[in-house]
Amino acid sequence: MTALVTAFPWRPVVTTRRSIYRGAVVDLGIESVTLPDGNDIELEVVRHPGGAAVCAFDARGAVCLLRQYRHAAGGWLWELPAGKLESGESALRTAQRELAEEAGLEAGDWQALAQVFTTPGFCDEVIHLFLARDLRTVPVRHEAHECIEVHWRPFDAALAMADRGEIRDAKTLLGLFCAARRSP
Fold first, then answer.
1. Which residues contact 95 (CB under 8 A, 6 or more apart)?
2. Residue environment code for 72-87, b if the CB has 16+ CB neighbours within 10 A, otherwise e
3. Among candidates 75, 95, 66, 58, which has minimal Cα distance to 161?
């Protein structure tokens, strides 16, 4: 598997951070920052451990899509299997765990597709996108807070869903786009 490397030539100088809220998923704070142009400002920043998402293809070339209820989005979304990185867990391990838990699948072939910022204007969350093939089924282990349906779509049909606006989740759109470049 090819590792993706992200390098930034300049990192902001954070002089102080005042935490406003720290929960199980996010840490919201006010950060005093010196920008590259030398200006000092205060920013509301959400710190997030990041996540991983999986574009999983079966032997026929169908892609696994989840129909998942998302309260914050106001209803049901089509998504790739995905989840939050746990402390000390690699992005690949997160992708493997989430594929098993949410879709009931393990993969023998893994490829890194991309690393993407979800909302860089106020959050440092990075989603690691993977392509998975050579699948076998394992027991699904949805968590209590998850309302998930597992579906399989021919890849062209999934791309058509995206074109029609039926898929609105950013990580899923990007995962499908990146997978299309790899000719699944």
1. 52, 53, 54, 82, 110, 128, 130, 132
2. eeeeebbbbbbbbbee
3. 66
- Tokens for 22, please give them: 């720290």
Bridge partner residues of 137 (DSSP):
105
Backbone torsions φ then ψ of 170, nearest 5 degrees: -60, -45
Residue found under tokens 């990146």 = 178
8 A C-beta contact, residue 25 and residue 19: no
pLDDT of 13: 73
Strand order in the sheet with 27-34: 13-22, 27-34, 40-47
Confidence label for 142 from pLDDT (cuts 50, 70 and 90):
confident
Judge whether 135 and 105 are in contact, CB under 8 Å. yes
User: How big is the CA angle at 117 (ends 116 and 118), to the nearest 5 degrees?
Assistant: 110
Residue 157's H or E segment, with its range, is helix 155-163
Beta bridge partners of 154: 62
Tokens of 33: 């920052």
DSSP state of 158: H
User: Structure pTM?
Assistant: 0.90
Cite the active site residues: 146
Among the residues of 30-153, which ranges form H helices? 91-98
